Amino acid sequence: MMKALLRAGLAAAALLSPSLASASWNVATSKHFVVYAEGSESAAREAAVRLEKFQVALRYLSGATAPSSSVKVTVFLVSDLAALEATRPFGGGGIAGYYNTTLRGPFTIMSRNKIKGSRGSRGEVFVADMDPQQILFHELTHHFMYQYFPAAYPTWYSEGFAEYLGALEIGSGDTVIVGNRVESRYSSFGRNDWLPVRQLVAARNYRDVKGSTHLLYAEGWLLVHYLNHAGVRQGQLKAYLDKVNQGMAFGQAGQQAFGDLDKLDGELRSYSGKFKLNAVALPFKKLDVGSITARKANRAEEDMLVLEMKLFAGIPERETDAFADRVTGAAARHSTNPYALRLATEALRLAGRTDRAIEFADRWVAAAPTDGLAVAARAELTVDQLERAKAKGAAEWTAVRKLYAEAAKLSPDEPSILYRFYTSYLREGRTPPESAQNALYRAFELMPQEDELRGQLAADFEMRDMLDEAIATIRPAAFVSIDPVDLSDGEKKERETDKLRYKLAGTTDGETARERLNRLEAKKRKSK
Q: What residues in the chain have per-residue pLDDT under 70?
């Protein structure tokens, strides 16, 4: 029953810290992950083994049958919270790790060590200790959901399900234990805090539970656990998610699927008082992790990994020049290393120093002639020049697309190469041909978590008057973004101010997913 329920649910700034700068890094590469870990080579390998076993367990529990994506998740395991916070674009604490997807690929940055909670003077638990493995599994559950089961997930379910599987335990003999109690969330119920289920299932995003985000996580996890383990309300979760994905308002979907929400609220409150929650042990003959290689990080990686983390996380637009100087300064110590040359090329392009970026890109291609990313970077810099010059010569644009074709041949199924090939037509001022549209669609298939790919694909469908396809593409992202009609004038002004204050280099201001969905739906209604 658990397996069926799981399937149904899925289907429907700052200076770098000294601890980072002086770290000893090792790298483990497996089928789905590239793991950079401070410490020993064996620690990096063991981390990759755990992650691959988790991946196998997720595929079994969810019933995922689609082939694995060739796009690996890059995992950085840093020493502590200070090192973690140093990687964030605008600093700040209060998080134990984070995950995101950019055109560089999916990544997550986590602390290797347990995060201490807080207790009162008499020892009462305010916030429980947090296990970094649970946090990592939580974030990778998000990645898995949107990779293999892309849909519109209400925030409580998305976070609750990730908490639920984040607590998955892989025991000795490859026994997988599902349904463990999450102490860091369970402690919320000991303070008599409670978010009514009626409000929980109607929440469209975090704004709808402002001030109670911790309860959205805690009760979201508890409700997922209840529906998977209590043997009640079978089929209701699937019905709820189906209705949400058909476009029904979350609150209405909750009422129709679960019935009396006050009754469900009482059941969940009672469930929260249980001292022990049922977990299920699933024995596997073997969780096959495939081939895993491990090595010590090379000198360029040791020197520049912290800078790559910053590139993954994003560079504030106002800091691009200073960041480019730091990266090129470090790269000067590794003048023929492809890794260093790549980072320098990327940093210089973000800073708008095209000519200098071309110098590094040419050296990168020379150092790694079979790396499609190097060839594509050189092509993209040429497009920058052509666009700036408003070049109209067909020969120039044809030549640059031959570079993209070469890059795609060298590095097949690399989303960023396919995407840049597509956008080269837009930047020339042409409607992309079918071959470019197919490349964009393939990039999206490989990395559906990436909002830029999703937004561009929706825009392409709209450009071709394929409104149903455009709406279906953008809807999953739209449901977790704020509807501008709900914002006050003051909130709208604050939002515009924040756009400027927290703007990352390389990003463009445009419609949010919700704004695009609203406009597309209005356009469809008007066309009838």
A: 1-23, 93-94, 114-130, 492
